[in-house]
């Protein structure tokens, strides 16, 4: 019997959410193993050796495969499970796919992550809310 895929991550992580969206789109059952980043679980020796040597989330595991990096996990899932998210095979369409993926990775994701950090997560990173960890209004606007 195949193992239900396990995602090691945090529901508040945009990278974990990227993988969960693909799993949901493909109709794949999964188990989310919550990683407490505030406690540093993602930097523990066991996490580093078993899931991701760079100490970040998410990480993926199924019966015979372990993968880290959200985009690599998503590509693996779409190729393995097919469906409407299957990458194209025509060379021009493949180039268009990777062009769009590059735009997302290079131009959309960095400012989006900064905006999410400044407006949502910054206050929780530090133990108390002080002037130096308030959202930077230049990023939020």
Could you list some keywords that capture this structure?
about 50% helix; Glutaredoxin; 4-stranded mixed beta sheet; 2 domains; 4 strands; single chain; about 10% strand; about 140 residues; alpha+beta; globular
Question: Summarize this, please?
Answer:
Keywords: Transferase. This protein has 141 residues and is α+β, with helices and mostly antiparallel strands.
CATH superfamily of the largest domain: Glutaredoxin
Strand content: 5-15%
Termini separation (Å)? Answer: 51 Å
Give average pLDDT, whole number: 85
Write the element-wise H/E pattern from the N-terminal end onward.
EHEHEEHHH
Name of the CATH architecture of the largest domain: 3-Layer(aba) Sandwich
CATH topology of the largest domain: Glutaredoxin
The coarse silhouette is globular
The major β-sheet equals: 4 strands, mixed
- Provide the gyration radius in Å: 17 Å
Helix content: 40-55%
Given the helix and strand composition, which structural class is it?
alpha+beta
Strand element count:
4
Which CATH first-tier class of the largest domain would you pick? Alpha Beta
Put simply, the count of helices is: 5
- For the largest sheet, list the strands in their spatial order: 2-1-3-4
Q: What count of structural domains? A: 2
* Low confidence ranges: none
GO biological process, one term: glutathione metabolic process
Domain GST N-terminal: 3-85
GO molecular function, one term: glutathione transferase activity
EC number: 2.5.1.18
């Amino acid at each position: 019997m195949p193992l239900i895929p396990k995602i090691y991550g945090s529901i508040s992580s945009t990278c974990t959410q990227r993988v969960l969206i693909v799993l949901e789109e493909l109709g794949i059952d999964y188990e989310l193993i919550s990683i407490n980043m505030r406690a540093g679980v993602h930097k523990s020796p066991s996490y580093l050796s078993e899931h991701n040597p760079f100490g970040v989330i998410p990480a993926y595991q199924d019966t015979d495969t372990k993968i880290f990096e959200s985009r690599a996990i998503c590509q693996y899932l779409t190729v393995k499970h097919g469906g409407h998210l299957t990458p194209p095979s025509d060379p021009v369409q493949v180039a268009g796919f990777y062009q769009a993926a590059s735009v997302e990775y290079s131009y959309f994701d960095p400012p989006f992550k900064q905006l999410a950090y400044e407006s949502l997560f910054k206050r929780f990173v530090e133990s108390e809310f002080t002037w130096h960890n308030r959202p930077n209004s230049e990023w939020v606007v």
